[in-house]
Specification:
With about 230 residues, the chain is an alpha+beta fold. It has one domain: Beta Barrel (M1 Pyruvate Kinase, Domain 3), CATH 2.40.33.20. About 30% of the residues lie in helices and about 25% in strands. It has eight helices and 13 strands. A seven-stranded mixed β-barrel has the order 1-8-7-11-10-9-13. A three-stranded antiparallel sheet has the order 6-5-12, with no helix packed on it. Strand 7, helix 3 and strand 8 form a beta-alpha-beta unit. It starts with a helix and ends in a 5-residue tail after the last helix. About 40% of the residues are buried.
Length: about 230
């Protein structure tokens, strides 16, 4: 049995489940002096929403280089992380306010393992790929001083997802981890900078399974001198 198959068998029930609390799509494009327009203003929507390979139907990726494409098709943020910000900022952080497509509970996003796969509802399967990197557009949207630095320091950045199997999702769907790589490197680890041991573990698993790491992670490993 392959390492990936072992992980799927071992983790089918092991890592626990979560709940999709809200599904969010763009409410309106906002003018932004940095990039022209931004699709960061997302709001929760009722009913089933189709999920395709490049994201949710009725959603928009205004900047597919930095916030879109297959490896960043969907952005998830946890309710617990949002509530920590709500307490600090002394205001509500409604679903979609951070530009997320999925607001989830009882499911780690920043501490999810890179490459782990979630089944959402009956049909949709997504794969954890990358951390969110805060930018000046995000700061202007939130309207907080030094937001990029504060968000970076906290490190609760959420995770991007690649769509493995398309289908429909809706608020209230269960989220089940159906596979998890053995390397154990989290989205938070990638965001803060992996150790040499973590970098090597990811590269070793890539070589063993033939499943490529997201190109942005490989570029970061090359930048840090861990990969050619």
């Amino acid at each position: 049995m392959s390492a990936q198959a072992n992980a799927e068998t071992a983790n089918h029930h092991g890592p626990g489940t979560g709940t999709l609390e809200h599904v969010c799509v763009v409410h309106a494009l906002k003018p932004d002096r940095g990039i022209g327009v931004t699709a960061i203003d997302k709001r929760a929507v009722p009913g089933p929403v189709k999920v395709g390979k490049i994201g949710l139907y009725a959603d928009v990726q205004a900047d597919r280089v930095h916030h879109g494409g297959f490896d960043q098709a969907v952005y998830a943020y946890s309710e617990a992380e949002a509530q920590r910000w709500a307490l600090e900022l002394v205001r509500e952080i409604p679903a979609g306010y951070f530009g997320e497509n999925l607001r989830v509970s009882s499911r780690a996003t920043t501490d999810a393992i890179v490459g782990e796969r979630w089944r959402i509802g009956r049909d949709v399967v997504v794969e954890v790929t990358l951390p969110r990197t805060p930018c000046s557009t995000f700061a202007r949207h939130v309207r907080e001083d030094d937001w990029v630095a504060r968000f970076t320091e906290r490190g609760d950045v959420g995770c991007y997802l690649r769509v493995v199997r398309v289908g429909k999702i809706r608020a209230g769907d269960s989220i089940e981890v159906v596979s998890r790589p053995a390397h154990g490197v989290s989205v938070r680890d990638v965001f803060t900078g992996p150790t040499p041991g973590q970098a090597q573990a990811m590269l070793d698993e890539q070589a063993a399974t033939g499943v490529p790491l997201p190109e942005k992670i490989l570029a970061k490993l090359r930048q840090l001198g861990f990969a050619e």
